[in-house]
Automatic annotation (TrEMBL):
TM segment ranges: none
Superkingdom assignment: Eukaryota
GO molecular function, one term: S-adenosylmethionine-dependent methyltransferase activity
InterPro entries: Methyltransf_16, SAM-dependent_MTases_sf
Protein name: Uncharacterized protein
GO cellular component, one term: cytoplasm
SUPFAM superfamilies in UniProt: S-adenosyl-L-methionine-dependent methyltransferases (SSF53335)
Length: 331
């Protein structure tokens, strides 16, 4: 069962949309711009999607897939296809932040909350550069994981007025999120208030709406909603759009920032965007006409274990959009 109470589909279990899709065998995969096809070592699983800095989808015996660790498959395939094994230092450092991912057990494992995916880095770079403006804003992140973009926003000067990082209310997932919030308190710029909160998509949003009203009771909701790598599991799009449209304040100045890895199929992204359009949002994709300079990593803060070239590769493997309310909604 998925965390929103619906049965898992052929797309597999997901972490708010991050799943291990069952794909058709024999499909060529792209590795560093080269079309290749390979096997996952002696496991004899056909590689059908290598997401160098995300995850790997394989087709094989269901029991074998249950028994194998996703990161083992990824690392094994990367070596065969000319990549490097993923080294996990146990924490993620981005500028002043020191973050951990959820422990690899229980819901954190099945919902992939124990990973940091490239779209979170892309959104963090936007925050660092000021492309995602945060000063004075009330910001909420859905399916935050380790909450890199939203917690980084709390360190920017001038700071947001409020950060609410949310994720599935599992002890391991939420416990790790709250630990990240607490660990990095010395780096938050006053008077920014920062919270880690459990939220299951489709559940009552009233508790989340109380927090921004403490800052500004004249405009219910949040000025910015952040969604990092949440689109892959299309069965959750309905509850995602419902949450988004309920949380984003009805103003011409409010925005939603959505990022997805290229491993999320275009038609899956389009499905989410279309549902958002029906809810009254207007989307602008910021990755369709980027210059070569814009495709290069432009952040200046240190990111643990990754140099500029590696960060550039991750950035180029992502898409991102800005959403705003249509005039029809605001009239």
């Amino acid at each position: 069962m998925r965390h929103d109470g619906l049965p898992a589909t052929r797309h597999g279990l997901s972490r708010h949309g991050r799943g291990l899709p069952t794909l058709t065998s024999g499909v060529a995969v792209r590795l560093r711009g080269v079309e290749v096809e390979g096997l996952c070592s002696s496991r004899r699983l056909k590689v059908v999607g290598v997401f160098i800095f995300g995850f790997l989808g394989c087709v094989g015996d269901d029991a074998a897939m249950d028994a194998l660790d996703v990161e083992d498959i990824l690392s094994d395939a990367l070596e065969i296809l000319g990549g490097e094994r993923v080294k996990d230092p146990g924490y993620v450092q981005y500028g002043p932040l020191r973050l951990t991912v959820a422990p690899k057990d229980g819901k954190a494992n099945t919902l992939l909350a124990d990973h940091l995916f490239s779209p979170a880095l892309v959104l963090a770079e936007l925050v660092e550069r000021g492309v995602l403006p945060v000063a004075g804003r009330r910001i909420i992140e859905l399916g935050a994981g380790c909450a890199l973009p939203s917690l980084l926003a709390a360190t920017i000067d001038p700071p947001p007025s409020l950060i609410v990082a949310t994720d599935y209310p599992d002890d391991g997932i939420l416990g790790n999120l709250k630990a990240n919030v607490d660990r990095n308190k010395p780096h938050y710029r006053p008077p920014c208030q920062v919270y880690g909160v459990g939220f299951e998509w489709g559940s009552d949003i009233a508790p989340l709406l109380h927090l921004p009203q403490r800052i500004d009771s004249t405009l219910p909701g949040y000025d910015i909603v952040i969604m990092s790598d949440l689109l892959h599991f299309d069965s959750s799009h309905g509850v995602l759009v419902l949450a988004l449209s309920s949380l984003l304040a009805k103003s011409s100045q409010t925005r939603v920032y959505v990022a997805a890895g290229n491993y999320t199929a275009p038609h899956v992204c389009d499905n989410f965007l279309n549902l958002g359009t029906l809810a009254g949002l207007i989307w602008e994709e910021k990755t369709s006409d980027k210059s070569e300079q814009e495709e290069t990593w432009m952040g200046s803060m240190i990111v643990s274990g990754l140099d500029t070239a590696q960060l550039t590769t991750r950035k180029r493997a992502c898409r991102w959009w800005i959403g705003r309310w249509s005039k029809k909604v605001l009239d």
